[in-house]
Design a protein that fits this description.
single chain; alpha/beta; 11 helices; 2-enoyl-CoA Hydratase, Chain A, domain 1; 2 domains
Length: 255
């Protein structure tokens, strides 16, 4: 069981690799995810993909065999706290993050995808928060992140009924950014990454920060002024304006 990171140029890929157990997450894997995110944050990567091994599912969430029977205190101090730290670290990466959901994503697996900025979902995939059927509740940020994307009533509907949303429904609810055929998911992911890489890295990272802060209630008039001030001091702004005037593609240096 492992969470690995590979880097190819401007793209870092986080791989959840436990296909024989449907990529079910353990405490060790959650800790690895947090460490991997720390490594990526210090790297020159400009886009981060979150993928999982195998072809059957994206991730079925927490490994039930690992937390069944633990005490209430252990659940509070270990399982929930560790998952929150790992997913919060993923969500707070300065780089744009994309979850490539190529199969069933339920429970913590769906919450993993929700912790990313964008989600590309295969047509056959489904998502769900079925914790109520086990006698528990979503515990790794799903209630907050799903509510932010889909609204309070729809978040309640999904949790209350435990039903699985199809990919098309997920897109209608604002959860999936793109729905594509499974055979095209790699090409569509590459296309989206290429589009992001056309923009100035510092500007995109600043934009991510101020969008997230604005969603939490911060004033855009203040945030945008501060972020624009930072962007004004970058070499990328000089390159971008020069490229515009010269009618050529910009060559950004992330500086």
């Amino acid at each position: 069981m492992s969470v690995a990171v590979s880097r190819g140029g401007a793209v870092a890929t986080i791989l959840i690799d436990r296909a024989d157990k449907l990529n079910a997450l353990t405490l060790d894997m959650l800790r690895q995810l947090e460490w991997v995110c720390e490594e990526i944050d210090r790297s020159p990567a400009r886009v981060v993909l979150v993928r999982t091994a195998g072809t059957r599912v994206f991730c079925v969430g927490a490994d039930i065999t690992h937390f069944a029977g633990i005490s209430a205190v252990q659940m509070w101090r270990e399982w929930v706290a560790t998952g929150h730290r790992a997913f919060a670290r993923l969500a707070s990466l300065r780089q744009p993050t994309i979850a490539v959901v190529d199969g069933l994503a339920v429970g913590g697996g769906f919450e993993l995808a929700l912790a990313c900025d964008l989600r590309i979902v295969a047509q056959h995939a489904k998502v769900a928060l079925p914790e109520g059927g086990l006698g528990t509740v979503p515990g790794w940020g799903g209630t907050e992140r799903l509510t932010e994307l889909a609204g309070r009533a729809r978040a309640k509907e999904l949790v209350f009924t435990r039903r699985q949303l199809t990919a098309d429904e997920a897109q209608q609810w604002g959860v999936a950014n793109l729905v594509v055929d499974a055979a095209e998911i790699d090409d569509e992911t590459s296309r989206l990454v290429s589009e992001i890489l056309l923009s100035a890295p510092v500007a995109i990272q600043l934009a991510k920060q101020i969008i997230d802060a604005a969603a939490d209630g911060a004033a855009s008039s203040v945030l945008e002024a501060l972020a624009s001030g930072v962007a004004a001091g970058t070499d990328d702004l000089i390159e971008g304006t020069n490229a515009f005037r010269e009618k050529r593609a910009a060559r950004f240096t992330d500086s």
